Amino acid sequence: MKNYDVAVVGAGPVGSTFARIMAEKGFEVAILEKKKEIGVPLQCAGLVGKRIKEVNVLPNEFIINPVHGGFLHSPQDTVLSVSKGKPEAYVLDRVKYDQFLAHLAEDSGAEILLNHGVEKIDSVNGVINLKNKEKTKISAGVVVGADGHSSIVSSTFNPLAESFQAAQYLIDVGEKRFQTNFVHLYVDSRVSPGFLWVIPLSESTARVGLFADANYQQLTIILNELLNKRSELRGATILKKYYGVIPRHDPHKQLVKDRVILLGDAASQVKPTTGGGLIMGFTSAEIASRAVSKALEVDNVEILTDYNKQYQERFKKELKVQLMVHKIFKSLNDDNLEYMFQKLKQEGAEDIISHYGDIDTQSTLVKEMFKRGIIFSILPKMLSWRISSLWK
Ligand SMILES: Cc1cc2nc3c(=O)[nH]c(=O)nc-3n(C[C@H](O)[C@H](O)[C@H](O)COP(=O)(O)OP(=O)(O)OC[C@H]3O[C@@H](n4cnc5c(N)ncnc54)[C@H](O)[C@@H]3O)c2cc1C
């Protein structure tokens, strides 16, 4: 049985990033990936905050467009326009970026084993059973479950993860209709706390999608409605259809057990408000790498629990605010959403969102809205009190 210091299950962006960091530190690392090609099919809108450049390598060739701002649409199309006049986010070529991150890991010394689906793990001994005829086994000092939303690794010590469904089309409208530096987001109580998006790739092509607590048939109906309703999307040719799963953030998920840790979607490290997982996953990979290196160096897997502690310190407060925002959106009907948008517009919230808004951290914006009394004017009293208690 081949033995490694670290075996990472899943060559997604987070698994590859973690593997690269550990290989750079000199550990013997294997990545076990069930697919024969990394990064396909695309299951991402590819919109990521500018902070990605602080938490991972991102060469410009994988950036399709910088994003300066967005238009937020209410159910009756009250529009809040927010912009900072400079890049706040990027639209990525996710397929090529995932492949690049895997190559970086390989260049740093990690061994990538494609067609290596993992069937079962023994968390105490770090033994991994592969899903092949030979029933091959691999062992490792630390096993990392970075195997996405339906993680086999997580399921050995966590209940089945809950998730949202997502659908996305790549469309071509045949003429120049889009501003490439601006995205459009649409709220609709049928999909809340999810939302719909239009992310231009060029002046005539875009990713149009949504995520919600609904089945794929319902998602498709709502997505098609958007295509028919919006004049800028009308007559679009659908070039590709993608479906995917976004895990619900679970604050109670166990991230460490014996010799095993979880990372990325497998650890439900996604922002509750947007479902975005790249920045949280990359940040967590760095946090985890410190605990895993130390545990391997002194041969004591109990140190792995440091990962959970440091992860909680880094994200707990922000996630609490986002989970609250998420809950509130879920409870609002279309009339409430409409009222909220109109009030926000009247109260001059576009400037505040433009100034304090951040695709990755919403707590600063929510806090500012409190300070200015805006939250009290847009939400029923009980809800406002619940949110304000977060800062007490
Ligand atoms: C429609 C959609 C839109 C999204 N848009 C955005 C966005 O705009 N911005 C953003 O930040 N995030 C977005 N996300 C979320 C983002 O894609 C994920 O958070 C991210 O891919 C998580 O990376 P990961 O490496 O943890 O997992 P994954 O990317 O899911 O990779 C897991 C890997 O593990 C492999 N694997 C699974 N099971 C096994 C097994 N048993 N054995 C071996 N290998 C296995 C899989 O084949 C896969 O390669 C979106 C998600 C969806 C579905």
What's the SSE blueprint?
Layout: E1 2-9, H1 13-24, E2 29-32, E3 47-49, H2 52-55, E4 63-67, E5 69-73, E6 79-83, E7 89-92, H3 94-107, E8 111-113, E9 118-122, E10 127-130, E11 137-145, H4 152-155, E12 163-172, E13 182-186, E14 196-200, E15 205-212, H5 216-229, E16 237-247, E17 256-257, E18 260-262, H6 278-297, H7 305-331, H8 334-346, H9 349-356, H10 363-371, H11 374-378, H12 381-388
Parallel strand pairs: 1-2, 1-11, 2-8, 5-13, 11-18
Antiparallel strand pairs: 3-7, 4-7, 5-6, 9-10, 10-11, 12-15, 12-16, 13-14, 14-15, 17-18
Helix pairs in contact: 1-3, 1-6, 6-7, 9-10
Residues 9-15, 32-35, 43-48, 117-118, 146-148, 152, 166, 168, 209, 244-246, 264-266, 270, 275-278, 281 line the site of flavin-adenine dinucleotide (FAD).
Write up what this structure looks like.
This protein is an alpha/beta fold. It folds into three domains: about 1-45 and about 95-160 and about 250-315, FAD/NAD(P)-binding domain, CATH 3.50.50; about 165-245, D-Amino Acid Oxidase, subunit A, domain 2 (D-Amino Acid Oxidase, Chain A, domain 2); about 320-390. The protein is built from twelve helices and 18 strands. Strand 10 and strand 11 form a beta hairpin. Helix 9 runs antiparallel to helix 10. It starts with a strand and ends with a helix. The model has no long low-confidence stretch (mean pLDDT about 90). The structure holds flavin-adenine dinucleotide (FAD). Flavin-adenine dinucleotide binds near residues 33, 45, 266 and 278. The site of flavin-adenine dinucleotide (FAD) has 38 residues, from helix 1, strand 3, strand 12, strand 16 and helix 6.
